[in-house]
């Protein structure tokens, strides 16, 4: 933004408008908070269930839409008390809308997203809540949506009809967590986790913000050779290559030609021709010993995807191969189902130095970092 325009906005944006809420997969909150701080976007004001609240240092900083470990980022409209489980309390949600001053928030959004305008043609609301209620999410959405529509003098698109809202309708979000009701305005037209490059997927394909969090943990640096021996649709390598263009080589292998075709299509959309993709068995990768600096992978452990070839015959083959390929200072970051015994990794010479439990679509998983004992 031009300095004069930025200055004008600094004068008109009230202090509370600089409050943002980023949402993420459960368990990734610390990584998201770290990313916000490392990108110098603002100071963290609260960390909650799947959310990180932060106050932006520069309210018009478009960097907030570049967060890689977030599923989505919102402007905080208003916080109030959770209305509880009783249907007669639903009208109280209109107070939240009045407190949020929706017009002012929509104007702030235009400073963050070039294609957004303050004059929106309509509004839509997506609600979620924890705990039992004797109303459903559509009832809560309607209570908020009708009040937003009245205040902004535009139509409201109810989700209960099943149709997708028009793409240019302002996307509001309501959460009721048992203690608080929170009204948010999504900044970007599409959720951040929907990456433009991800046109093709395969079963077990990774959620891109989780892939981004795993690649951050891998500590990729200049000149590194980075490998995914079971690359599927290529999510981990693409996230790594976008965040770390300084690495020397990105190599992906998969046994399944369909997975490789998906990875090639996504690689093309992401304009990352430097990622090399080949067919191979992860139990015998055609690379010399101790030549890989970083491995990122969610191997097929039979939860969503069955292991094939050597990995099916000898499950420990994966650990032995990772150990053979890694340099002495090498690091591997894997996503594993729970519980996965790590004794075969330790026997193969890889020491787990960090484990982290996360939840994906309600299922627990472990992100595990492995290094060579020093
Ligand atoms: C969970 S998926 C990986 C998903 C990937 N990270 C993504 O985001 O799309 C596991 C992959 O392992 C592959 N696979 C199964 N057995 C293999 C083997 N022996 N060698 C190499 N790849 C194998 C499957 O074809 C599948 O694409």
Distance between the termini: 49 Å
Sheet with the most strands? 8 strands, mixed
Spans of 5+ residues with little confidence (pLDDT < 50)?
A: 1-13
| CATH level-1 class of the largest domain | Alpha Beta
Please count the helical segments.
11
CATH structural fold name of the largest domain: VC0802-like
Shape: elongated
Average pLDDT reading:
92
Radius of gyration: 23 Å
CATH-defined architecture of the largest domain:
2-Layer Sandwich
Structural class: alpha/beta
Structure, described:
By secondary structure, the chain is of the alpha/beta class. It has an eight-stranded mixed beta sheet. Strands 11-10-9-12-13-15-14 form a seven-stranded mixed beta sheet. S-adenosylmethionine binds next to α7, β10 and α9.
Please render the helix and strand layout as text.
Blueprint: H1 3-12, E1 19-23, H2 29-38, E2 42-48, E3 51-56, E4 72-81, H3 93-100, H4 102-112, E5 123-129, H5 137-152, E6 156-157, E7 170-176, E8 180-186, H6 208-217, E9 225-228, H7 235-243, E10 249-254, H8 257-269, E11 275-279, E12 292-297, H9 309-313, H10 317-325, E13 326-337, H11 343-347, E14 351-360, E15 363-371
Helix pairs in contact: 3-5, 6-7
Bound molecules: S-adenosylmethionine.
The site of S-adenosylmethionine (SAM) has 25 residues, from helix 7, strand 10 and helix 9.
């Amino acid at each position: 933004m031009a300095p004069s325009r930025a200055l004008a906005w600094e004068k008109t944006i009230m202090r509370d408008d600089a409050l943002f809420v980023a949402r993420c997969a459960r368990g990734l909150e610390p990584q998201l908070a770290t990313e916000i701080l490392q990108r110098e976007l603002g100071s963290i004001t609260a960390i909650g269930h799947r959310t990180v609240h932060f106050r932006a240092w520069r309210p018009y900083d478009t960097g907030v839409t570049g967060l890689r470990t977030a599923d989505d980022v919102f402007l905080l409209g208003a916080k109030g008390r959770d209305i509880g489980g009783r249907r007669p309390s639903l009208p109280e949600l209109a107070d939240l809308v009045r407190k949020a001053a929706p017009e002012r928030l929509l104007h702030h959004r235009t400073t963050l997203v070039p294609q957004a305008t303050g004059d929106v043609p309509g509004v839509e609301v997506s609600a979620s809540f924890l705990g039992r209620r004797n109303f459903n999410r559509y009832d809560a959405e309607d209570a908020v949506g009708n009040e937003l529509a009245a205040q902004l003098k535009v139509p409201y698109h109810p989700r209960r009809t099943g149709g997708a809202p028009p793409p240019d309708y302002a996307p509001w979000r309501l959460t009721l967590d048992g203690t608080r009701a929170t009204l948010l305005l999504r900044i970007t037209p599409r959720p951040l986790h929907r990456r433009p490059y991800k046109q093709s997927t395969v079963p077990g394909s990774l959620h891109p913000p989780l892939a981004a969090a795993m690649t951050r943990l891998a500590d990729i640096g200049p000149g590194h050779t980075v490998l995914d021996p079971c690359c599927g649709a290529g999510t981990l390598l693409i996230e790594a290559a976008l965040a770390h263009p300084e690495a020397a080589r990105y190599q992906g292998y998969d046994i399944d030609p369909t997975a490789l075709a998906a990875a090639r299509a996504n690689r093309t959309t992401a304009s990352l021709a430097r990622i090399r993709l080949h067919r191979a068995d992860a139990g015998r990768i055609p690379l010399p010993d101790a030549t890989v600096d970083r491995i990122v992978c969610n191997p097929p452990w039979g939860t969503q995807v069955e292991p094939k070839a050597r990995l099916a015959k000898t499950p420990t083959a994966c650990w032995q191969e990772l150990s053979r390929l890694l340099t002495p200072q090498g690091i591997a970051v894997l996503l594993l189902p729970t519980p996965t015994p790590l004794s075969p990794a330790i026997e193969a010479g890889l020491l787990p130095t960090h484990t982290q439990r996360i939840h994906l679509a309600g299922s627990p998983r472990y992100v595990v970092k492995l290094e060579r004992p020093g």
